[in-house]
Amino acid sequence: MRLITALFVTLLLTGCTNYSAHQPYRSSNGEQMLISANIPNGMLKLWVNDVLVVDDTILNQDKSLSAAFSQSYTNVYHGTYRGQKIMTRCKFSRDAKECDVFVDGEYAANLFLR
After folding, report:
1. Looking at residue 28, what is its pLDDT?
2. Between 38 and which of 4, 15, 20, 23 could a Cys-Cys bridge form, CB atoms 3.0 to 4.6 Å apart?
3. CATH 2.40.128.180 fits 19-112, yes or no
4. Which residue has the higher pLDDT, 12 or 37?
């Protein structure tokens, strides 16, 4: 019974964890951007200048059987900001959550979500 209670508390605390990060970026056309992200309750939310660009789950996107048991995986997310393509590649593992953000194919930010 104590083991079940401990597992439930661990899952509850993990599910409520909110990781966040932000980083400034100046695009090739000179526009200043603040790229920020957080992970409330297992959902990746990415903003560019307070405009929500990505709102998607952090569950492993790989549908293979081996991926179901993987402790480390990478997801790719797409969005747009004022007509510019935003691509975010996030690496998730038990110890780290890290996202590389690209604006129109140009590297813009590396966010360590803590």
Report:
1. 86
2. 20
3. yes
4. 37
34 by DSSP, 3-state: which? strand
Cα 64 from Cα 58, distance rounded (Å): 16
Which of 53, 110, 44, 50 is CA-nearest to residue 78?
53
Q: pLDDT per residue over 40-91, tens digit each? A: 989 999 999 999 999 999 999 988 888 888 889 999 999 999 999 999 999 9
**CA proximity to 21, closest of 83, 108, 98:** 98
> In terms of C-beta density within 10 A (0-12 exposed, 13-18 middle, 19 or more buried), how is residue 78 classed?
exposed
Structure tokens at 2: 């104590």
* Two tokens, residue 39: 């992970």
Helix, strand and coil content of the chain, in percent to the nearest 5, comes to 15, 55, 30
Q: Domain spans of the chain? A: 19-112
Q: Cα separations (Å) of 51 from 10, 54, 86?
A: 33, 9, 12
d(CA 88, CA 85): 10
